[in-house]
Design goal:
Order of helices and strands: HHHHHHHEEEE
Distance between the termini: 57 Å
Radius of gyration: 19 Å
Number of helices: 7
Strand content: 5-15%
Number of domains: 2
Shape: globular
Number of strands: 4
Largest sheet: 4 strands, antiparallel
Helix content: 40-55%
C-alpha cells in the first residue's frame, strides 16, 4: 500500500516551521529596536514617543512589501499600535504568499489585535495557521495594581511592565515546550509566569495562583 507521502503531499510538520518562526520573531524584535533607535536619534522623550512611534510604524507598514510588511505589522501588534487598516493591508500580503511561517505570523497578529481590550474580533475568511491563544485572561486579584491589571488585559505582549522583576532564574525549557520566566511585581507583589511557546511569535502571561506564589527559584 502506498504511503501518505507517496500518494501526495503531506502537511509540513510543525517542527520544520520552528526555525522560520524563530527567525521571524527575531526580525520582529529587531524592528522594535529599530523603532527605539529612530526615536532616540530624534531626541524624542519616552513619555512623548507613543504618537511618534505609532506614526512611524504606520508609515513602515504602508510602504513596506512582503516579509518586511508582515514583520512590521507583527511589531505593531506586539506594542498595541495596529489599526484595522493595517490588518487589511497585511491580509492581502499574507494571501499572496506561500510561506506558511509568514502566514502564521500574520494570523498571530490578528489574534493578538482581536483580543486587545475594546476591539471587536476581525472576521476571518480563511483558516488561521497558528494555534489560537487562550481565550481567557488571568483573574484579577483584589489588590492587583494598575500596571498588572493592564497586563492582565494584554496577556500576549512580550515585554513585562516596568515594576515587574525576575523572580529567580528561568526554568529550563522542556523539549517541544514553552520557555518560562517568573516575575514578581514590586508594587502589588503579584507573581506572573511568562511562557513563550516554540511556534508562537508572542508570549502568554498568567498570574501564579496564591497557593503557588512562593518563589520557585532562589
Amino acid at each position: 500500500m502506498a504511503s501518505a507521502t507517496q500518494r501526495g503531499a503531506t502537511p509540513q510538520p510543525a517542527g520544520r516551521l520552528q526555525p522560520k518562526l524563530s527567525a521571524l520573531i527575531a526580525e520582529v524584535r529587531a524592528v522594535r529596536d529599530e523603532l527605539d533607535r529612530t526615536l532616540a536619534r530624534h531626541g524624542m522623550p519616552s513619555r512623548d514617543a507613543a504618537a511618534s512611534r505609532a506614526r512611524l510604524l504606520d508609515q513602515w507598514i504602508r510602504q513596506a512589501q512582503g516579509r518586511r510588511q508582515l514583520v512590521c505589522l507583527a511589531c505593531g501588534a506586539e506594542q498595541g499600535l495596529l489599526q484595522q487598516g493595517h490588518l487589511e493591508i497585511g491580509r492581502r500580503t499574507a494571501a499572496g504568499t506561500t510561506d506558511r511561517a509568514l502566514r502564521a505570523l500574520y494570523w498571530a497578529s490578528v489574534q493578538r489585535w482581536s483580543r486587545a481590550p475594546g476591539i471587536r474580533p476581525m472576521r476571518d475568511d480563511t483558516p488561521a495557521t497558528s494555534a489560537a491563544a487562550p481565550s481567557t485572561s488571568p483573574a484579577v486579584a483584589p489588590d492587583m495594581c494598575g500596571d498588572c491589571d493592564d497586563l492582565r488585559q494584554d496577556i500576549r505582549r512580550y515585554t513585562p511592565h516596568a515594576e515587574l522583576a525576575r523572580d529567580g532564574v528561568n526554568e529550563p525549557p522542556r523539549p517541544h515546550g514553552a520557555a518560562e520566566c517568573r516575575y514578581r511585581c514590586g508594587t502589588c507583589a503579584t507573581q506572573w509566569v511568562r511562557r513563550v511557546p516554540p511556534f508562537e511569535p508572542f508570549a502568554v502571561w498568567a498570574v501564579v495562583p496564591a497557593r503557588h506564589a512562593a518563589p520557585l527559584y532562589r
